[in-house]
Amino acid sequence: MRTPLTKQLREFRAPSRKLHLYYPNSFLKLIFIGFILVALPLAVGLVNSALSINHLADQSQRAVYQAAQAAHGGRVLVDEVTAMERSVRQAVILNDASLLEGYEHSHAKFMSTAHSLATLPLGNEQLQLLQTLIRSENAIHEQVAKAPTPEAAGAAANDFVALADSAQRISAMGNALIEREVDAMKDMASSALRIMQWQLLALFPVAIFLVFGFAMLIARPFRQIDAAIRRMGQGDLSGPVIVDGPQDLSALGERLDWMRRRLLDLEEQKSRFLRHLSHELKTPLTALREGAELFADGVVGTLTTEQQEVAEILRHNSLQLQRLIEDLLNYSTLQAGASSLLLAPVRLRPVIEKVLLDQKLAILNKQIQTSVTGPDAMIDGDEDKLRVIMDNLLSNAIKFSPAGGTIDFVLRRDATHIIVDVADQGPGIASDEREKVFEAFYQGRTAAASYVKGTGIGLSIAREYALAHRGRIEILDTASGAHFRVTLPITSEAT
Question: Is residue 47 part of a domain?
Answer without folding.
Answer: yes
